[in-house]
From TrEMBL:
Pfam families the UniProt entry points to: ABC_tran (PF00005)
Annotated keywords: ATP-binding, Nucleotide-binding, Transport
PANTHER family, alphabetized: ABC TRANSPORTER ATP-BINDING PROTEIN, ABC TRANSPORTER ATP-BINDING PROTEIN NATA
InterPro entries in alphabetical order: AAA+_ATPase, ABC_transporter-like_ATP-bd, ABC_transporter-like_CS, ABC_transporter_ATP-binding, P-loop_NTPase
Keyword Acetylation: no
Domain ABC transporter, first and last residues per copy: 4-229
Protein name: ABC transporter ATP-binding protein
Amino acid sequence: MNAIQTDGLTKFYGRSRGIIELDLEVHEGEFYGFIGPNGAGKSTTIRILMGLIHKTRGSARILGKDISKEKEQILSVTGYLPSEAVFYPDMRGRDLIRLSADLRRKDCRKTSSDLCERLQLDPSRRISELSFGNRKKLAVVCALQHDPQICILDEPTGGLDPLMQREFFEILKERNKKGMTVFLSSHILSEVQRFCSRAAIIREGRIIASGSVEELTRTNAKRVTVRGTFDPSGLPDVRDLQISGDMVSFLYGGDINLLLSRLSRHQIMDLSLSEPDLEEIFLHYYTEGDEKE
Ligand SMILES: Nc1ncnc2c1ncn2[C@@H]1O[C@H](COP(=O)(O)OP(=O)(O)OP(=O)(O)O)[C@@H](O)[C@H]1O
């Protein structure tokens, strides 16, 4: 049984595209990243999974349960962190936390107070008095206090300062070790590279690549940085060329001997060849797509 499985999942808002023919497979216990730029369809996918909006066609299951028919069973074992949490402003944090626990008919006092302490959240304050980051922490407590089997997080780190982001990922990692599946959408690629074992890349509503983060980042291309006067434009498979003063930097996917022989004809002061990071690979997927169109 997969933690999340979608088959041909499609959503149109009127005539405009949300997501198209999305096939996702997230295994139980995985830490899975869902990467894509603004407007790619990440929130649309997540909102359909959480039953907040209806699909146009296709199907989706969470822990084997159909999202259209078994919503209540799904919600009782799922934690959800929306990208922008909107709460009743006059409520106090602790009342919201209790309401969220009551909806799941669970006593979550011990876990919620641990979470508040770790996230340094004062739950006695009114929601209207909380900063954006503190509202996010409140949403994290509501998403995790009932020890869900799967947690679906939409751009989770927006609004959290770096220390809190670290604590938040620590919590997720601990939960994941105990078996919780984590599915998070992000456009912070280093975050996905650091924490996720597998990921899917979504672009313009379609998944353009998926697999282990290692596979996705494995490429023959190297980031070449040269100090000196060098023009790589005659070389094959050169992308993302950046020139700044006497520094030339580009992604190179061609024959390394050819590169070395071209370089040897120039006065080079410094040279480095490094593995591209996920950010660059992502760009690579995008430019590939653009070339095909
Ligand atoms: N309520 C809506 N009505 C009409 N179109 C919508 C609506 N919500 C989303 N869309 C469109 O669906 C597409 C996917 O949007 P979605 O919010 O799912 O992307 P996203 O990947 O989550 O982006 P972001 O990172 O900016 O949150 C976009 O083209 C968007 O304009």
